[in-house]
Design brief:
Elements lengths: L10 H14 L3 H14 L5 H12 L7 H9 L2
Length: 76
Amino acid sequence: MPNVLVRDVDEKVLEKLKNKVARNGRSLQREVQITLKEAINFEPLSDADVARKIKDSLRGRHHSDSAGLLREERNR
């Protein structure tokens, strides 16, 4: 497997990686491999998918009438 050398890693990034290593009980090298693999496979959600997830998370809840609340505030 090819090697990759990364120079000038930001101190905060390295600190976070080391914290992640300690939490997960892996070597720094293995943690970097996993993090790179996750990053390269990451596919951001479309705006429609994000909206759908928010809508689904709010389904079944009671929501107040925002127009009514605004009307009340204006009348104060």
